[in-house]
Structures are given as structure tokens and as C-alpha cells.
């Protein structure tokens, strides 16, 4: 038996939890019948060879039976809601046709994927207009990890994700394959996308009715696009690839009986050591892969995963074969390169709440590049949250194009599960988180708060990863072009577009 310490707290500053927000909408336990947890199918490659993988990813409209009665109009990738799960293998050349079958412009952003920007990365500079398709090609070169694909057409990211445009992406590599982790997809290895929604008349979503500049919320937990799900457990251990896919909500996860679970991976892949918990908090866009051992239960038992005191998923225990697999105390080595001498410390100051959010005193401007870093350098980035310690909120800070190392939180060690690679970090009010950041792909990329209404509202900046020997210029999108497209596609005047962030950014 392992003698690892078991952590029982959420680490983040309690006064900053979203539960203290004026606009907080508590989750409510759904009253509808329990439904089998949707497990998104794996997206079939169009073709796969020893060296290459070909995919077609289609953004489409659809209808999903979420509640009894009327179906809900939703959007998804190769699916009516969310999407199929996309698998990339480290070392392969990936070719993806991106097809937009939606009635409006979108982009395909690969959150956490190490690809060039701004086009392959898929932020706001890479629009795909309705009825059109485009192709991206890149070499998958990164550690096994749980990443995700989501729409990113600033400042309408939040609306499109709310409609369903988000799906899990799994990177596989040889190192992770050697580890004693469950990996039978859909049986003992499953994505768990945590979201919340409010359903209006005829079971429909209504983004504008629920809009909140600090982040839209709904009282109903929606897990993998399932309301009130259960999962049939047929193995002693299961691995959950949990993603906080909510626009704003934090999840404070724990199981019934305070069942212990083990985190084995964070955003960028496997942790150096497994970390045991009874409680785990995730902020927006963060991922945690956890392994849960149901060895103490017997067929007929039920184990519930909660956030705060609301049930999210019920795990129904069935017959399983005994599995005494123990995780080694050391899993993988994490790179920790030396900082390049004589390089500046980048400063990112996240300030404000509601419409007043900004980074370094500015609102996002698609045409402005706020910072730069030389490709191959390793540099410190200090990320501060100047919100008031007692009334402010946690801003989950995300950077495209990198998996960084968290060096410290206000000079202290990062949390016990933050010793691996990350692309998103929750920053407490009054805190400065120091990151060690390096890039190996050129491009213009975004860094922002991942509360989607904050990023749409301008709490976002851009940086360029450059090579001094090969300077490049980029054609950057502008707000007017995007808003003109949205207005035309939605058949309204630009002034009448219900895209709240357009009035807050440039
Ligand atoms: Cu999930 Cu700009 O990203
Ligand atoms: Cu991203
Ligand atoms: Cu924020």
C-alpha cells in the first residue's frame, strides 16, 4: 500500500470561490430521470498510415435530447452536441479538414496543442466561414495529454461554446502507454466534460437571457452533454479525463464516502508523481486525469461524484475482476529548463470584474501584439490578479502554444498537483503566479482569462513567438471584418448583434 499523503482541501482561496459572487447561480440536482452518461465516440480518421493521420472535423448544428420533451438545439463537432473525441498520436503528421456547416463564422482552436499560430492554432485570426472548409497540417509533437477543441471567434467564443462547440482531444505517446493506467476508452477511460446550463421554454438555451459579464452560468449540471447521468462501472479502476468546460463555473469535486482518488495528469500530461485527494477544485479550461479505485465497493453499490453538494455523476458498481495494480511513486520526468540569461520577466496583470476586466490596463485588440518571446528561450512570466482578496474572483489564466511550469504562487510552492505541465492556472485575488514558459512554434497567439465572458470582454492579450533570424509579418483579423460577417450571417445590422464583448473590445 502506498503511504502517499492524501490531500483534503481545495487549495484555492476560499473567499474567492465563485459561491461568494453576487451573481452566483448554485447548481441544483436535476429532477429528471437518470440517463446513461454519454460517451462520445472516437472520431474515425479518414485515413491513417504509419506516419500520418487524416481527419475531417465538422462544426454542425443539431438537436439533442437533453431533457424529457423537446429536444434542445445545440452545436457540436461531428455530433449534435460537444463532439467526437479526437485522438492524435505523438510523432505523426496530422492533416485535418475543418468544415463549417454552421450558419455563422467560427474558428477551431486546439487548446493545449503545440502548433504554430495564428492559423493552425485556430484563434480569432483563423475564421472559417459558413459552408467553407480549410485544411491544417502539423506534426504532433507532445506528451500524452487530455486537451480540447473549442470555438474561438472573439468575441463570440462564449456563445458558441455555450451552444456546444467543445470536445475532448487525446494525445497518446509511448511513455504514457507504459504506465499502469486504465486506457480502455469508454469502459475504464472516459472523458468527463463538466458544464452547466439553464434550460428555457421548450428546453432551449438562451445565451442572451442568461448573459452575465462575469460569466454565464446555469443551475443544471451537464456532463458530456448528459443531464443527471449514471455510469456503469465494470472495472475496479477507472480513469476520468476531467475538463472544466464551463464558461465560468468552478468545480469542487469529491465523491461520496470521501472516497480517495488519485490525480495522474494535469493539462499538459502525466504528473511527475501521483497525487491523492479526497477533494479537487478545477477552474475553467483546466483538466485533471484521475484514477478512482472502486475496490471497496460491491455490485449494486453506487458512488456519487459531487461538485459542492450537488451530484454530478452516479457510478453504478457492477461485477468486476479484482485489480490490485499500484501506481509507482514516480511517473514521468518533467522538463524544467534553465531560464535564458538576461531575459526580462514578462508581466501580465489581470484586473477588474464584469465589463471592467482588462490585462495590463488594456482591453483586447486583435491587431495589437502586446508581448513577444524568442523561440527556444525559456522566460519567466509573472501573472497577477489584482482583484480584492475578500471580494475578488479567481481568474483562470491560459496561454496558447505552450505547456508551462508553475514556479511559485506568491513566492510559495505551487499546489501539490501543479508540478507537471499546465496551460491554464487559476490565479487567486492578490496573487502573483510565476511561470516558466518556452515555445517551439512560431506565431501570434493569445493569452487570456479563460472565463469565456472575460476573454470575450477583453481580458485577453496577444504575443508573438519570433525567430530574429527569420522575421515574419502576420495578417491579423480585425473586429470589423468579423462583426460584418456575423451581421450578414445572422441577418441583422451590426449595431443589433447580440455579441456583448464587441462593445468592450477593439
Ligand atoms: Cu481555450 Cu484562447 O483558449
Ligand atoms: Cu487555448
Ligand atoms: Cu477572469
Automatic annotation (TrEMBL):
Keyword field contains Transcription regulation: no
By its UniProt entry, which Gene3D superfamilies does this protein fall under? Answer: Cupredoxins - blue copper proteins
Q: Look up the signal peptide feature and give its range.
A: none
Location of the Plastocyanin-like domain: 61-175, 341-467
Q: Could you tell me the superkingdom of the organism this chain comes from?
A: Bacteria
Q: Which GO terms describe its molecular function?
A: copper ion binding; oxidoreductase activity
Question: Which keywords does this chain's UniProt record carry?
Answer: Metal-binding, Oxidoreductase
Its family remark reads:
Belongs to the multicopper oxidase family.
Record's protein name: Bilirubin oxidase
Amino acid at each position: 500500500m502506498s503511504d502517499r499523503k492524501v490531500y483534503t482541501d481545495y487549495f484555492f482561496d476560499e473567499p474567492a470561490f465563485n459561491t461568494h459572487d453576487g451573481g452566483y447561480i448554485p447548481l441544483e440536482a436535476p429532477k429528471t430521470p437518470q440517463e446513461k452518461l454519454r460517451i462520445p465516440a472516437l472520431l474515425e480518421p479518414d485515413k491513417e498510415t504509419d506516419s500520418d493521420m487524416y481527419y475531417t472535423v465538422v462544426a454542425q448544428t443539431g438537436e439533442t435530447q437533453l431533457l424529457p420533451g423537446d429536444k434542445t438545439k445545440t452545436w457540436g463537432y461531428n455530433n449534435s452536441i460537444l463532439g467526437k473525441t479526437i485522438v492524435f498520436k505523438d510523432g505523426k503528421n496530422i492533416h485535418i479538414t475543418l468544415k463549417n456547416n454552421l450558419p455563422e463564422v467560427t474558428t477551431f482552436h486546439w487548446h493545449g496543442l503545440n502548433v504554430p499560430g495564428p492559423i493552425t492554432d485556430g484563434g480569432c485570426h483563423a475564421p472559417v466561414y459558413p459552408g467553407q472548409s480549410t485544411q491544417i497540417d502539423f506534426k504532433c509533437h507532445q506528451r500524452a495529454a487530455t486537451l480540447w477543441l473549442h470555438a474561438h471567434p472573439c468575441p463570440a467564443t462564449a456563445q458558441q461554446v455555450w451552444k456546444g462547440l467543445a470536445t475532448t482531444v487525446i494525445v497518446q505517446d509511448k511513455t504514457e502507454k507504459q504506465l499502469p493506467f486504465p486506457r480502455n476508452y469508454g469502459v475504464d477511460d472516459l472523458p468527463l466534460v463538466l458544464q452547466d446550463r439553464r434550460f428555457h421554454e421548450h428546453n432551449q438555451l438562451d445565451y442572451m437571457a442568461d448573459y452575465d459579464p462575469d460569466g454565464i452560468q446555469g443551475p443544471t449540471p451537464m456532463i458530456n452533454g448528459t443531464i443527471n447521468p449514471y455510469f456503469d462501472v465494470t472495472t475496479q479502476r477507472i480513469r476520468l479525463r476531467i475538463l472544466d468546460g464551463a464558461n465560468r463555473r468552478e468545480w469542487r469535486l469529491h465523491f461520496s464516502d470521501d472516497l480517495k482518488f488519485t490525480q495522474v495528469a494535469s493539462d499538459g500530461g502525466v504528473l511527475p508523481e501521483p497525487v491523492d485527494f479526497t477533494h479537487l477544485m478545477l477552474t475553467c479550461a483546466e483538466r485533471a486525469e484521475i484514477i478512482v479505485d472502486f475496490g471497496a465497493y460491491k455490485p449494486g453499490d453506487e458512488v456519487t461524484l459531487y461538485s459542492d453538494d450537488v451530484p454530478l455523476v452516479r457510478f453504478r458498481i457492477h461485477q468486476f475482476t479484482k485489480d490490485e495494480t499500484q501506481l509507482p511513486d514516480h511517473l514521468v520526468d518533467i522538463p524544467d529548463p534553465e531560464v535564458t540569461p538576461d531575459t526580462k520577466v514578462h508581466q501580465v496583470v489581470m484586473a477588474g470584474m464584469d465589463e471592467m476586466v482588462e490585462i495590463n490596463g488594456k482591453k483586447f485588440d486583435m491587431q495589437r501584439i502586446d508581448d513577444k518571446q524568442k523561440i527556444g528561450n525559456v522566460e519567466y512570466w509573472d501573472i497577477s490578479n489584482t482583484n480584492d482578496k475578500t471580494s475578488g474572483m479567481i481568474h483562470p489564466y491560459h496561454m496558447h502554444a505552450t505547456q508551462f511550469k508553475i514556479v511559485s504562487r506568491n513566492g510559495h510552492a505551487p499546489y501539490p498537483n501543479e508540478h507537471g505541465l499546465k496551460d491554464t492556472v487559476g490565479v487567486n485575488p492578490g496573487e502573483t503566479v510565476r511561470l516558466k514558459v518556452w515555445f517551439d512554434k512560431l506565431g501570434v497567439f493569445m493569452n487570456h482569462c479563460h472565463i469565456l465572458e472575460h476573454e470575450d470582454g477583453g481580458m485577453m492579450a496577444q504575443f508573438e513567438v519570433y525567430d530574429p533570424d527569420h522575421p515574419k509579418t502576420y495578417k491579423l483579423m480585425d473586429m470589423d471584418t468579423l462583426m460584418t460577417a456575423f451581421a450578414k450571417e445572422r441577418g441583422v445590422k451590426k449595431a443589433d448583434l447580440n455579441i456583448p464583448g464587441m462593445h468592450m473590445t477593439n
